[in-house]
Amino acid sequence: CRRCHHLRHQSEEIPQREREPIGLARHRFEAYLDKVFDFPQLVGALPEGRHSPTHPWHKVFDAVFLAAAMQVPSLLQIEAECRRGALAKRIGPISDDTIGYALQRQSPEHVFSLGCEIARRLKRNGILRSDWSRGLIVAAVDGIEICSSFARCCDACMQREVQHKVRGEMRTDIQYYHRIVAVVTVSTPFPVPLGIRFQKDGEAEVPCALALLQDLVGHLGRRFLDLLVGDALYLQAPFVKEVERLGLDWAFTLKENQPDLLREAERFTTGPPATVQSDPKQELRCWHLPQVDWPVADRLVRVVKTVRIEHKRQVTVSQDGDHLTKSKADVALESTNFYATNFDLGAIPPTFIQQLSRSRWRIDAEVFQTITTDCHLKHPAVHQSTALVVLTMIRVLAYALSLVFYCRQVCSHARGPCDGFHEFAKRLAYGFVALSPNTS
């Protein structure tokens, strides 16, 4: 009858509707990249580094990029996904040797330029806009170590002697490792990596960061970024001078590595604070010094000192005879910080410098942690000098674009609680599986 036919037709439609969001995740992601960034055209314009390749570079790039968005850790797993897994229909069979060979012969400069073009379009589309930073695009700079090993090395590896246990005995061996420096926007609702650079053997982190900033300004222009934040390592006279030459304001943490400046700041902030902000959870005391002599740099800088007192309840354990008793007590945790900057506050309260400087923690707490634990930044999938650089650049680019899509298209349109970023990567992979041909 018509009613039975209607019920049977309904039962056939329900599984299809349930599969649609998963299947469309892949389609929507790539459609978003195509519509907003012209991504396939940008990738297709990348020059080929091999002669007469069986698999063109854009195919290899897509395999690595989509696998990184799906948070696949190794080239062998990428090969498996392309042969019989999630990417079987989208990419097709391709070996890990082919991927490694193509990565080794690709120019990192072209991939870096692609990332800069993506960043330029992000700014043009208003994704880098924020409210709390008063219209400024604030970027943080920091470094991280990746791919440490006692056995695997390449021509670009850095070296050090490390004591470690081998079968219960302490021994000293040479450890090979890489370090990268990243510049990430931290004023945005979600942090966006702008670029990375590998430290060379014998090169310090600060000169590497300066070279990265020069490359970014050369590609993006002087007006792309407004202000740079970082930890106390970057508060060095030569680095500050070059940052200002690039047209950037700066705000760095002040610690013992600049003893003269710190001593002057401590001497002038022994009195009562200029402002006090308090709420039930914390109290923030702030001192503002518009001009403090920095003898090493032969100049005056602005210094802000803050004392944060957090009111918390902590569990304490006390012993009463043979018994341990747990109780909660109110404690006040006090932390003192100094910040140096060249930023002209004008009518802006000095606590704004504290907000700027504390935003640098996002590069470590959000970017490095997520891209290390979920996106396998430290996994040496291919340990060759150029191949590792290109692979890492593609992984960072995939993290940035998948995060943009996740925040702008998934979270913003969710009607209820939204899955985490790691779960989103799984749904992306399931979408490819749903659209792939059946395999035995």
Characterise this structure.
- The protein is of the alpha+beta class and 440 residues long.
- α4 crosses α5 and α5 crosses α12.
- The radius of gyration is 26 Å and the shape is globular.
Short recap of the structure:
It is built from 13 helices and ten strands.
Instruction: Determine the oligomeric state from the structure.
Output: single chain
Through-space gap between termini: 39 Å
Which consecutive residue ranges, at least 5 long each, have pLDDT under 50? 1-26
Number of strands: 10
Radius of gyration: 26 Å
Number of helices: 13
Overall body shape: globular
- Helix-strand pattern: HHHHHHEEEEHEHEHEEEEHHHH
Structural classification: alpha+beta
- The amount of beta strand, in percent, is 25-35%
- Mean residue pLDDT: 89
Helical content band: 40-55%
Largest sheet: 10 strands, mixed
Kindly list the characteristics that best describe this protein.
alpha+beta; 43% helix; ten-stranded mixed beta sheet; 10 strands; 440 residues
Q: What's the arrangement of secondary structure elements?
A:
Layout (H helix, E strand, L loop, with lengths): L1 H36 L1 H6 L12 H13 L5 H10 L11 H9 L3 H17 L13 E12 L8 E9 L2 E17 L6 E7 L6 H16 L6 E4 L6 H9 L3 E6 L4 H9 L7 E4 L3 E13 L4 E22 L2 E19 L9 H8 L2 H13 L11 H27 L9 H15 L5
Parallel strand pairs: 1-5, 5-6
Antiparallel strand pairs: 1-3, 2-3, 3-4, 6-10, 7-8, 8-9, 9-10
Helix pairs in contact: 1-13, 3-12, 4-5, 5-12, 6-12
